[in-house]
Specification:
CATH architecture of the largest domain: 3-Layer(aba) Sandwich
Strand order of the largest sheet: 10-9-8-7-11-12-15
Shape: globular
CATH class of the largest domain: Alpha Beta
Structural class: alpha/beta
CATH superfamily of the largest domain: Nucleotide-binding domain of ferredoxin-NADP reductase (FNR) module
Number of domains: 2
Largest sheet: 7 strands, mixed
Number of strands: 15
Length: 288
């Protein structure tokens, strides 16, 4: 079991967990993830490692509370223990390519951080484009600024940076600075698909991470099956990173909706139970 050392709320519904897990901290490479189990009767969920410190023996996970398990995880406290398995997945291929544009949306900024750092350490000129609905939801800004040579922000409401989407910022960057040597995009599937369609005609190599579709994490369940170049691939063992221009995003997004009804029901039951506990204790409800 891994022990939680620190928990910080870094944005509305976002928490950062510092976890003591020395073996994973030593072996972790950019792009890899872990599977966690918060108790014996919980579901396993994949979380990309946002940071690691081999000397301290710690890994950092950033979690957005959107479903039953992540909301339940939000009730944990420093000192609690959870099961953590990893590092899993293939590490990001890092080399000196020239100019790399790293695009992160929402929770996708967390897995983007170690990739941006590794690309910069390899000698690349790293340009980061970060987006979210509002200023508060563009997470890890200081960390991404430190990992980047240039940074651009976009928000849906214009509260940070330019009003609009990350694809608009990429358009502006290419118009001013020219074609980058590589694009990395991590975030909602619809965002990654938009970036892929934007870079395809320009023949800009583009990589995406599909970690959110995983269930088992070890290649056993087949729940993370995606079509890449017309062939079936498992995100957990063949990825989580793939050539964006080869991914069938339409089919992937259909698979993401397969268990939507069950996920909503689990979330409803958790919130109902949470309301009952809070009412009995005379306290306030968190996570609604």
């Amino acid at each position: 079991m891994a022990r939680i050392l620190e928990i910080d709320e870094i944005a509305p519904a976002f928490k950062r967990y510092l976890i003591h897990e020395p073996v994973i901290a030593r072996r972790h490479r950019a792009g890899q993830f872990v599977m966690i189990l918060i108790h014996d009767h919980a579901e396993r969920i994949p979380l990309t490692i946002a940071d690691s410190d081999a000397v301290r023996g710690t890994i950092t996970l950033v979690v957005q509370e959107v479903g039953k398990t992540t909301m339940e995880m939000g009730e944990l406290a420093p000192g609690d223990s959870i099961t953590v398995v990893g590092p899993l997945g293939k590490p990001t291929h890092i080399e000196n390519l020239g100019t790399c544009v790293c695009i992160g949306g929402g929770a996708g900024i967390a897995p983007l951080l170690p990739i941006a750092r590794a690309l910069r350490e390899a000698g690349n000129h790293v340009v980061s484009i970060l987006g979210g609905r509002t200023l508060e939801l563009v997470i890890l800004r200081l960390e991404m600024e430190a990992a980047s040579d240039e940074i651009h922000y976009t928000t849906d409401d214009g509260s940070l940076g330019a009003k609009g989407m990350v694809t608009h910022a990429l358009d502006r960057y290419i118009e001013v600075s020219g074609r980058p040597d590589m694009v990395v995009a991590i975030g909602p599937a619809i965002m990654m698909r938009a970036v892929a369609e934007q870079t395809r005609p320009l023949e800009i190599p583009t990589m995406v991470s599909l970690n959110t579709i995983m269930v088992d994490g070890t290649g056993m369940c087949g729940g993370c099956r995606v079509r890449v170049d017309g062939e079936n691939r498992f995100v957990c063992v063949d990825g989580p990173e793939f050539d964006a221009h080869a991914v069938d995003f339409d089919r992937m997004m259909q698979r993401q909706r397969i268990f939507l009804e069950q996920e909503e029901e689990a979330r409803r039951r958790f919130l109902t139970a949470h309301l009952c506990r809070a009412a009995a204790a005379g306290g306030q409800v968190h996570g609604t």
